[in-house]
Design a protein that fits this description.
By secondary structure, the chain is an alpha/beta fold. Helix content is 43%, strand content 23%. The strands form three sheets. Strands 3, 4, 5, 6, 9, 10 and 11 form a seven-stranded mixed sheet that branches. Strands 1-2 form a two-stranded antiparallel sheet. Strand 1 and strand 2 form a beta hairpin. Helix 1 packs across helix 2, helix 1 crosses helix 3 and helix 1 packs across helix 4. The protein starts with a helix and ends with a helix. The relative contact order is 0.14.
Length: 288
């Protein structure tokens, strides 16, 4: 079995990329760091570093060990934390979701935190693909997605739906295909997915969002409708993102013939059991 102390020294060295700074971070001497690396190389019977003076690069074996070993260390740290403290209402919960989910869920989870001051909510907004990757590499404990995950490390189940809405400048009374093409499309990180779902079911001319000229882009959920409100284009967004916009008089939401909603999934790492506090977070969202 690989010595976890030596493995931790090796992974820290890879991340810091400096022997002296690694020693400082681990409260060791530089020679102690070198000894750990040497002993680890002897244990796995292969070279992990190629040294170039004071610099180094990883061998192929070193790269493989770091990728697998860093995940193992996170699992061990999580297990240790879970064994020490598995209270349903205390400890850190790291959550990620797309913006529209976050606009709804974050306030609900803050209300839960107000009730339970020992519970710490770390909530970050990111596109679906980034959320899924964060769950897969243990950067997030829980992810909320609007697309079913595709990575084998991630498991999920559906917890709800959210309507998708076509939003134009207020002056557009009828969102005909020609009117949309004339306006142009305001894009965002999940725009292609949203547009494909809604527009394909309501416009026979629609094949792909790239048919329509792009007239803007924003990755900030609170700013996506700003260019729409100025007449610069239209977009497709989930309902919570639209309802949160602070200039509703400058935009128009259109309810199309074939309404479409996207599913909302909660996901976590397949090989990582959920702590009680994470179940508390999920239950609070489901109850809302």
């Amino acid at each position: 079995m690989i010595n976890p102390t030596w493995l931790n020294t090796f992974c820290t060295l890879v991340e810091v990329n400096h022997f002296t700074q690694t020693a400082e971070r681990l409260y060791m001497t530089q020679s102690g760091v070198s000894q750990h690396i040497k002993k680890l190389e002897q244990q796995v019977d292969c070279a992990l570093l190629e040294r170039h003076g004071k610099q180094f690069t990883l061998t192929v074996q070193g790269q493989n060990l770091y990728q697998q070993g860093s995940q193992l260390l996170k699992e061990w740290q999580f297990l240790e934390q879970q064994l020490k403290d598995d209270s349903p209402y205390s400890g850190l919960v790291k959550i990620q979701s797309p913006g529209s989910c976050g606009l709804q869920f974050y306030n609900q989870l803050l209300a839960l935190q107000v009730e339970h001051k020992e519970l710490i909510i770390d909530y970050r907004f990111a596109p679906n693909t980034s959320v899924e990757q964060a769950v897969a590499n243990h950067s997030a404990d829980i992810g909320f997605l609007t697309q079913a995950p595709t990575l084998s490390e991630v498991t999920s189940h559906k917890i709800g739906q959210e309507p998708l809405l076509l939003v134009t400048p207020a002056a557009i009374k009828s969102p005909t295909w020609s009117a949309l093409n004339e306006l142009g499309f305001i894009s965002h990180p999940d725009a292609k997915h949203h547009a494909q779902l809604l527009l394909s079911e309501n416009y026979s001319e629609f094949e792909h969002v790239d048919q329509i000229k792009q007239t803007g882009f924003s990755n900030q959920i609170s700013l996506i409708l700003e260019p729409v409100s100025l007449g610069l284009g239209f977009t497709v967004l989930p309902a919570h993102a639209v309802s949160a916009f602070n200039k509703p008089a400058l935009i128009k939401t259109h309810h199309l013939t074939n309404p479409i909603s996207e599913n909302i999934y909660v996901c976590h790492h397949r090989n990582r059991p959920l702590a009680k506090r994470m179940h508390s977070v999920i239950d609070a969202i489901k109850a809302s």
